[in-house]
UniProtKB/TrEMBL annotation:
Residues 22-255 form the ABC transporter domain. It holds the Pfam family ABC_tran. GO terms for molecular function: ATP binding; ATP hydrolysis activity. Keywords: ATP-binding, Nucleotide-binding, Transport. This is ATP-binding cassette domain-containing protein. It comes from the Bacteria. PROSITE patterns: ABC_TRANSPORTER_1, ABC_TRANSPORTER_2. Gene3D superfamilies: P-loop containing nucleotide triphosphate hydrolases (3.40.50.300). InterPro entries: AAA+_ATPase, ABC_transporter-like_ATP-bd, ABC_transporter-like_CS, ABC_transporter_ATP-binding, P-loop_NTPase.
Length: 335
């Protein structure tokens, strides 16, 4: 459904020297620098998949989304979505996609939400009977009824995000691009939006690309992720593969009988490990030790802890997706 081949996007940035002299110089003899926002990214997404597209701020995620949706022209490379090249057949192409940018709305600020949808119905030329069925479905999954008569400017952030997602789905798109759809939302609204995305994907087979900084979105919605950093792809695979290959970190959590006893624990000296291989911290009587099981066993860490300090309670946690991704960003593991 989605095919991207060696996508690159470069921007020219003018470097201005300080002061009035620098302003005049940059006006007549501007010094330019080439910034590579996206540097040779390739991937494919089959029909009906929810793909997690993640990376730190400035990694190039939104730039890739804008090229896939036809907003930006690639400097080189190409992309094809459902057989169409976005930049060449834009009018017909946008009839088949839905887009939500979490920090920008596509809704008319002063119109009631119901009237906004009526305008979008005419723009996308949705037949009356299909529109009524579609609105009934969107009301069911996104719970729009309580605010559908309200002007968009009066909606809360959570209501506006649900309204934006409904607007992007009004014409039954085959591909849905979601760029930070849960940003700034509370737990309940996030859960509602996740459930809506899952239901739409399951019932209609809609292909979804999701960019997010909320790793709970990724774990709950996506079986596969593409991770980029500094414009380059650094990982492409399933969550299970990520955990299997890089899931060698464990966390030992325990409650101390006497909190000051924590200073008696010197894991680095005992096991000859670096800060990257083991880290220990305390918050009151609660302590947390993160360690690499390829360097030291769980049994050795637990045995040393219990033989050195008195412990009320103890728990060992497996690796979390958030920790794996942090380590990937810091290049602590091989890619």
């Amino acid at each position: 459904m989605i095919y991207a081949d060696n996508l690159r996007k470069e921007f020219k940035k003018i470097i201005k020297e300080p002061g009035l002299k620098g302003s005049v110089k940059s006006l007549f003899h501007p010094k330019k620098e080439i910034v590579k926002a996206v540097d040779g990214i390739s991937f494919e997404v089959p029909k009906g998949e929810i793909l997690g597209f993640i990376g730190p701020n400035g990694a190039g995620k939104s730039t890739v989304i804008k090229m896939l949706t036809g907003i930006l022209m690639p400097t080189s490379g190409m992309c094809r979505i459902n057989g169409k090249i976005p930049q060449e057949d834009r009018k017909n192409y946008v009839r088949e996609i839905g887009v939500v940018f979490g920090q920008r709305t596509q809704l008319w600020w002063d119109l009631a939400l119901r009237e906004t949808y009526a305008v979008l119905k005419e723009i996308y030329q949705v037949p009356d009977d299909q529109y009524q069925k579609r609105m009934a479905f969107l009301n069911e999954v996104l719970e729009l009824d309580s605010f559908i008569t309200s002007p968009v400017r009066t909606l809360s952030l959570g209501q506006r995000m649900r309204a934006d997602i409904a607007a992007s789905l009004l014409h039954s798109p085959k591909v849905l691009f979601l760029d930070e759809p849960t940003i700034g939302l509370d737990v309940v609204v996030k859960d509602n939006i996740r459930n809506a995305i899952m239901k739409i994907n399951k019932e209609e087979g809609t292909t979804v690309i999701l960019t997010t900084h909320d790793l709970a979105d990724i774990e709950l919605l996506c079986e596969r992720i593409v991770m980029i950093d500094k414009g380059k792809k650094v990982f492409d695979g399933g969550l299970s593969e990520l955990k299997r290959n890089f899931g060698d970190v464990r966390t030992l959590e325990f409650e101390l009988v006497n909190a000051p006893d924590f200073k008696l624990l010197d894991y680095h000296r005992r096991f000859h490990l670096t800060e990257d291989e083991l880290s220990a911290e305390r918050d009151g009587s609660l302590a947390r030790v993160r360690f690499d099981t390829a360097k030291v066993s769980v049994e050795d860490v637990v045995s040393y802890t219990l033989s050195t300090v008195h412990v009320k309670d103890l728990n060992i946690k497996g690796v979390e997706i958030e920790e794996i991704i942090k380590r990937l960003y810091r290049r602590e593991v091989s890619l």
